[in-house]
Amino acid sequence: MGELVLSAHPESRELVKAIEAASRTKTSLCYQCGKCSAGCPVVFAMDYTPRQIIRLLQLGLIETALQAKSIWICATCDTCSTRCPRGVDIASIMDALRREALKQGKVVKEVAAFNQAFLNSVKRYGRNHEASLVLEYNARIMKPFKNAEQGPMMMSKGKLKIFPEFIKGRGEVNRIFEKVKAMGGDHE
Amino acid sequence: MVAVAQHPNIKLYSYSEVVGLSGYIGNFTVTIKEKAKYVDYDKCTGCGLCETKCPSRVKSEFDLGLGERHAIYKAFPQAVPNKPVIDAKNCRKLQTGKCGICEKLCPVKAINFEDQDRFVTEEVGAIVMATGYDLFEWEKAYGEYGYGKYPDVISGLHFERLVNASGPTGGKIKRPSDGKIPQAVAFIKCVGSRDDTKGKSYCSRACCMYTAKHAMQVVEKIPGGEAYVFYMDVRTAGKGYEEFYQRSVERGAQYIRGRVSKIYPRGDRLVVKSEDTLIGKPIEVEVDMVVLATAMVPAAGAEEIAKLVGFSTDKDGFFQEAHPKLQPVETFTGGVFLAGACQGPKDIPDTVAQASAAAVKVVALLSKDQLATEPMIAYVDETKCTGCEFCVPICPYQAISMKPIKTRVHGETVERQVAEVNKGLCQGCGACVAACRPCALNLNGFTNDQIVAEVDALCL
Amino acid sequence: MRLAYYPGCSLDATAIEYGMSTQKMAKLLDIDLWEIPDWSCCGASSAHQTDHLLAISLPARNLAIAEREGLDVLAPCAACYNRMRATEYEVRASAKTRSQVEEALGMPYQAAHSTISVLELLDARYGLDNLAARVTNPLKGMTPACYYGCLLVRPVAVTGFDDPENPQSMDRIMKTLGASPVDWAFKTECCGAGLGVTQTDICLEMTYQILRNAKEAGADSIVTACPVCHLNLDMRQKAIEKKYQTQFNLPVYYVTELVAIACGAEPPAVGANRHFVEAVSIFQQLPAKAKAMEEAAAQAAKAGKGAAKAKAAKPAGESEEPAADEDAGLALARKLYDDESKAAQLAEILKQEPARAEKLAEMLEQDKSKALKVADALLAKKAKEKSAGEEGNKA
Q1: pLDDT by residue (tens digit) across C44-88?
Q2: What is the pLDDT of residues B151-199, one digit of tens each?
Q3: Which residues of B are less than 8 Å from C171 in CB distance?
Q4: Is C53 inside any structural domain?
Q5: Closest CA to A130 of B385, C242, C41
Q6: N or C: which end of chain B has fewer CB within 10 A?
Q7: What CATH code would you report for B133-297?
């Protein structure tokens, strides 16, 4: 990993504080026991374990945390927060880090693409239309035929809606998106 | 304990409870309930024949449910006096009228089914509280460890009984589920302690050392035995403690820094999931038995006995010492002292030290004819006291009582009640001063006038 | 009982069985479901990973519509349920949050009502007794593993109706339907959820662990109440079997499918024929399974308390079994003799000869006087042996 140079970067500290405020929890409570990592069902695929992510924040090394793959592999299952003996809400911190990373453009391609496709579908139809979600997702990750065999499989079971339903209130839904954007989003 | 029982100046009331207490330092009156033992200790020789024939079997409390005892039983092999009592709830004769084998077999006719509870009063000058501890009920809190439904997940105290030569397995470490000898044992520290969300926030002090001992026992007593200790810290503040812990590591105990998130069964083994925080990787171990080092909590009934005797408990229910550094064995109530785990989790050397300290404090107290008390206590201005008795129930130390005095009113002598403060009991808390409406009660050193003058100085 | 109904985006697509069975179940149980008119997407995980205010405003639109109607909301999808609960929680906790949400919505919203899951509906609101009364086709012989997943039970402050480590509401529902749910350790382990699409390999590993533990616990099926869990467990089961070179053959049901079937619906009517892992034939096999289970239970009871106790996983060391036998022997002896010492003597003899004890017990059931004669003979024989021994010693 190399050396970690700790220096008093006030912006980093401020950003950590913002993450803590967004997740309504304090990283100073963490005594690095590792119970969160131990119970995390996806830890085997992470580069930094959940505990290490909190440690990075404790040291003010938020940039490293934002570049970690871990925050995009986290499934938000909340096992960590439920079992933490100090009451640290690690799951919320992961969520807040994702939003910050998205803002800074540091994302794991697939997950960001999925989220974007999902929300676009909601904006367009008022509901998530799974077929068009998959199409847009595939386009975004430039794998147009990914999971293609599942299409006919799902269709044969009657589980694929080919045509989306445009709800009457999709204008209202759109309005919510616009309003949130105008309000600056991510208000605490 | 035997020395205590034989000492001419010590009266030992076993199988008894304190049910009433009144008085104050130097002059306590204690009411003791001697519970019916159904065995006459003057006749009983402790031969133990009755125990061998008793048909009733229940789980032994001393063996924490791992073994059994009879309805007539000695509490444990080293009990003093080494004589049995009958557990009325499980005795067939006392419940249904049938049986009575022990009575028939007792060679000295010591069994007495007509026995009743007895109440005794003693006058004492001081009280030492030494009610000990119980274990945190982890089975109610830790679902991730199975809520107690896996028989091979046990507490440290269970392990002590397994390893003890007079225990239910004769000192062999065996799995409670099938009696097999475990090859790999996991020890988990800080269960119920250092846990702000589901347990107690404090450190239970003794667990690091006894876990090191247990781990050593596993590697030494079981050929090829493996011991894994999951820890957050290893606290070895004591003489020879660090060296002892290092020895356990040398002998083969594998210490892994990381708290365990889940234990679940696979086949007849148990899987323990943790993270080795020192290399930052998740770790999984399959073991045959898991021992949880659970937090010490105040003994059951501690809160009730503290109320009865009349002293305070702290935020965790342990008995409150008068000063954390300077008065570790005294309470705020004069004449009541503390010793041992009832004051806070601790191990044997510290308990013995506290017990010696409490004993000396008692000797110092009782060797004097007069008692020096705090001067900052309440006093009554009898000219102002209306005898309303509002202050009497307010005092947490029951230091206020009423007394009759004679005064002249309109040329006549009348008798009326006024409040009186017991200088020995009053601790100077000031609750009565705040409550007294005619301002008859005042506190030496903190009089109402003094306080008003302070407020004026700050605010005007 | 009337509830606002929020199906969510998957209940007429990938989770069509969930939608069908929930509607069918409501009809069979006389629950009036008012589908929120023109409902919109709750945002699921994608919203809260993108923007916090958006993530609570999207569900709030639907909740506000239900609020105007004065109804609590039934949200079968675990993700929708969780997001709605989170919204209610945050709006109730902070006036500031509430005003922000109302501004984003352009509608008033107070979070005066609550969203409930299918489990809470059946276990708490509708009531298990009422449910039992509607069961016409009990699922006897079925041993499902009740899989709750993450979003129904965590975070506790938001969901709060069942235990996050060992929840029991679905198990109780299954028992009410006549099934025998297994006790297993992976009830609330995450299946991977959306990672199934974006990081499929990770999801396969997670779902594999769940299937494996369910199988090891003796389950013949899995029940769930979450569309994405169902998708991972059902649609991906074959891929997992291939990757890990194993066989599971565990049909995966939505809890509402089983409730509806137990209350008289035909499996195809609730979509059970649309699963990827074949899920209809199990119902024909249940009667045979139930019979086998009953016979096994009877055998265990006959073998005496000793065997059952040893299996019933409680700490005892080795003293437990002899005690049980002894107790059984003594109990038997007491049935024959009132005299305690005689009973004790007989019990001693029976302890040495458990086969004789069994025979004596059988005899006692049929003919007490005969059993008494046998017992007398045993005692007499023992007394003779004893005196002979003493004579021998004297000599």
Answers
A1: 989 998 999 999 999 999 999 999 999 999 999 999 999 999 999
A2: 999 999 999 999 999 999 999 999 999 999 999 999 999 999 999 999 9
A3: none
A4: yes
A5: C41
A6: C
A7: 3.50.50.60
Work out the percent of chain B whose per-residue pLDDT is above 70: 100
Q: Is B427 on the interface with A (CB under 8 A)?
A: no
- Measured between beta carbons, the chain B residues lying within 8 angstroms of C305 are none
CATH classification of the domain holding C90: 1.20.1050.140
Same domain? For C148 and C292 the reply is yes
To probe the interface with C, which of B177, B272, B273 has the most C CB atoms within 10 Å?
A: B177
Instruction: Write the CA distances from A69 to A23, A37, B118, C202, C207, integer angstroms.
Output: 19, 15, 72, 13, 21
The residue of chain C with its CA nearest to that of A116 is C46
Query: Using an 8 Å Cβ cutoff, are B177 and C316 in contact?
Result: no
Q: Are C27 and C101 in a shared domain?
A: yes
Residue C63 in contact with residue C84, Cβ under 8 Å?
yes
The pLDDT assigned to C321 comes to 42
Could you give the number of structural domains in chain C?
A: 3
Test B147 with C165 for CB contact under 8 angstroms. yes
User: Averaged in consecutive runs of 10 residues, what is the pLDDT profile of chain B (460 residues)?
Assistant: 93 95 91 96 93 93 92 93 95 91 93 95 97 97 96 97 94 95 97 96 97 97 96 96 96 96 96 96 97 97 94 96 95 94 96 97 92 88 94 90 92 94 88 94 93 93
Question: Is B143 within 8 Å of C166 (Cβ atoms)?
Answer: yes
pLDDT (tens digit, 9 = 90+) per residue, C169-203?
999 999 999 999 999 999 999 999 989 888 899 99
Q: Is position C393 within any domain?
A: no
Verify that C170 and C276 share a domain, yes or no.
Answer: yes
CATH number at residue C208: 3.40.50.11810
CA distance B40 to B26: 33
In a 3-state reduction of DSSP, which class is residue C343?
A: helix
Ranges for all domains in chain B classified under CATH 3.30.70.20: 378-459
Domain that includes residue C112, residue range? 2-118
Tell me whether residues B65 and C319 touch, CB distance under 8 A: no
- Residue of chain A whose Cα is closest to the Cα of C149: A77
Residue intervals of chain B classified under CATH 3.50.50.60 are 133-297
Q: How far is A3 from chain C, CA to nearest CA, in Å? A: 30
A123-177: per-residue pLDDT in tens?
Answer: 989 998 888 888 898 888 888 877 777 778 888 888 888 888 888 888 999 999 9
Whether residue A164 has a cis bond before it, omega within 30° of 0: no
Q: Examine residue C315 and state whether it is found in any structural domain, yes or no.
A: no
Residue B154: which of C163, C315, C341 has the nearest Cβ?
C315
* Residue C95 and residue C167 in one domain: no
Domains in chain A, please, with CATH? 10-104 (1.10.1060.10), 109-182 (no CATH)
Chain C residues touching B53 at Cβ < 8 A: 344
Tell me how many helices (H) and strands (E) chain B has. 12, 23
Interface mutation vs chain B, best among A35, A53, A64, A81, most B CBs within 10 Å: A35
Q: Distance (Å, rounded) from C-alpha C302 to C-alpha C356?
A: 15
pLDDT digits (tens, 9 = 90+) for C14-38: 999 999 999 999 999 999 999 999 9
Instruction: Count CB atoms within 10 A of the CB of residue C299.
Output: 10
Longest dimension (CA), chain A: 60
Which residue among C88, C118, C148 closes a domain?
Answer: C118
Structure tokens at B187: 């020890």
Q: Does C205 touch chain B (CB under 8 A)?
A: no
C66 and C179 belong to one structural domain: no
What ipTM score was computed for the predicted complex, to two decimals? 0.91
Answer whether residue C307 is part of any domain.
no
What topology is assigned to B378-459 in CATH?
Alpha-Beta Plaits (3.30.70)
R_g (Cα) of chain B, nearest Å: 28
Q: Which two tokens stand for residue B152?
A: 């091979």
Same domain, C170 and C102: no
Which of C118, C153, C168 marks a domain boundary? C118
pLDDT reported for residue C360: 79
**Interchain contact, C318 vs B174, CB within 8 Å:** yes
Instruction: State the average pLDDT for chain B.
Output: 94
